[in-house]
Structure formats: C-alpha cells, structure tokens
Amino acid sequence: MSETAVRLEESWKQALGEEVSSPYMGELRQFLQREKEAGKRIFPKGAEYFRALDLTPLPEVKVVILGQDPYHGQGQAHGLCFSVRPGVRIPPSLVNIYKEMQSDLGIKPARHGFLEHWARQGVLLLNSVLTVEESRAASHQGKGWERFTDAVIRAVNEQGHHVVFMLWGSYAQKKAAFVDQRRHLVLKAPHPSPLSAHNGFFGSGHFSKANAYLLSNGREPVDWQLPETANEQ
C-alpha cells in the first residue's frame, strides 16, 4: 500500500488526494505492513485494494452498492463488494441478489459470482473496509478504511450526477445517510443475507427502479445480465 497515491485511478486521485496523504492513511499503511510482517494473510491482495475505484472512475459512477468488508476466505475477495473470483462458489447474499434480479428483471441467475461486468458499466461496488485478515471477519474495522470510504461516497455525492445509491441493510443506510436525495436516488432495503432478505429485500425492485431513474435522467441503464462465464468480462 506504500504506492497508494500512485496506483489510485486518476479521477479518484484528484478527488481523494488529501485523504491519501492524511495521517490516518499513513497509520493504516503502517498497520497493514505490520500485519504482513507478522505473517498474517490479508485479503484481497495489495494490487486489488482499490479495484472498485480502478474499474469505475468517478465521472462514470451510475450506481453505488455498499458492502461492509471483504470476504475472508481463501481466493474469494478481489476488491468488489459481493463479488468473488471466477471459480469460487457464489456466496449466499449474492445468490439472493440474483434471485431478486430474476424476479425484478427476468434475468436468469449467473453461474458465477464475478461482478466486474457491472463495475465496468459504472456500478461502484464499494466495501466500507477494504481489507481483512484471513478467517477473521471484521478484523480491520476501525483502522481508518471507513473514513476513506466515507470520503469516496462524499465525492460521488458532491461530484456525481443522478446516481443511484442501493443501500442494503442498516449499516449501508447509516454510512450513506448524508447523500443528497434531491440530486440522487436513494433506494433502501434489508440486506440480501439469508437472515434478512425475506424482510423486504425480495420484492424491492431496486434493479428496475435504478434503470428507470437513469433513463429518465439521460443516462445509460445498467446491463445487469452477467456474461455466461466470468472469463468473458
């Protein structure tokens, strides 16, 4: 992470330059370095910490989907919330996202969980915390990432135009509570986790609502249909 300022995509670098050079990010870098030196396995790999920002430049953001922290199992996380690498079993929350998409848009569920196709169209798949220790959920919360990703959301709120914020669950809804609903569309529903999806995530219609809003404001809708195989993205 020592090359953070260099590796950040240019539009995000301009928007977040002060954050990147701030003391708390320096402390976060030191924390991550210490963890690695202690032999701990950190996910995703360093080159993918900012994958969501790399794939979705600030001016291109159409939709924001917020997660909490990366998957902590071997080979799962690659820098996009809810997404897993090709060949990895589709996580339960993403299974439910696919079910809702099928109900809402008639889209047949994909046989993989690799969501870069969405990110390349302007869907910012942002976790609140961008790293995690293997097999230790929430292990990097409170280390500085939340402040950085707050700044990401703030940049979209202030510089984006007609963006759809899909806020699933109370954590995401609190994190993005400051979004200006006069400038953007804020959609709220329970989290797609099997524990809560039946409390209102199913039937929320967020995908069709997002595309209708984008179209009504002169923006290209998102093609939510994922390629047949992950390798086609």
TrEMBL record:
SMART domains attached here? UDG, UreE_C
Q: What is the enzyme's main class?
A: hydrolase
Residues annotated as the enzyme's active site: 69
Q: Which residues form the Uracil-DNA glycosylase-like domain?
A: 54-214
In which compartments does the protein localize?
Answer: Cytoplasm
User: Keyword Cytoplasm, does the record have it?
Assistant: yes
Primary place of residence? cytoplasm
Under catalytic activity, the entry for this protein gives: Hydrolyzes single-stranded DNA or mismatched double-stranded DNA and polynucleotides, releasing free uracil
Keyword line: Cytoplasm, DNA damage, DNA repair, Glycosidase, Hydrolase
> Has UniProt tagged this entry with the keyword DNA damage?
yes
Q: Which SUPFAM superfamilies match?
A: Uracil-DNA glycosylase-like
Give an example GO molecular function.
uracil DNA N-glycosylase activity
Which EC numbers characterise this protein's activity in its record? 3.2.2.27
Q: Origin, by domain of life?
A: Bacteria
Function summary: Excises uracil residues from the DNA which can arise as a result of misincorporation of dUMP residues by DNA polymerase or due to deamination of cytosine.
Family stated for the protein in its record: Belongs to the uracil-DNA glycosylase (UDG) superfamily. UNG family.
| Protein name according to UniProt | Uracil-DNA glycosylase
UniProt organism field: Rhizobium helianthi
Q: What is the lineage of its organism?
A: Bacteria, Pseudomonadati, Pseudomonadota, Alphaproteobacteria, Hyphomicrobiales
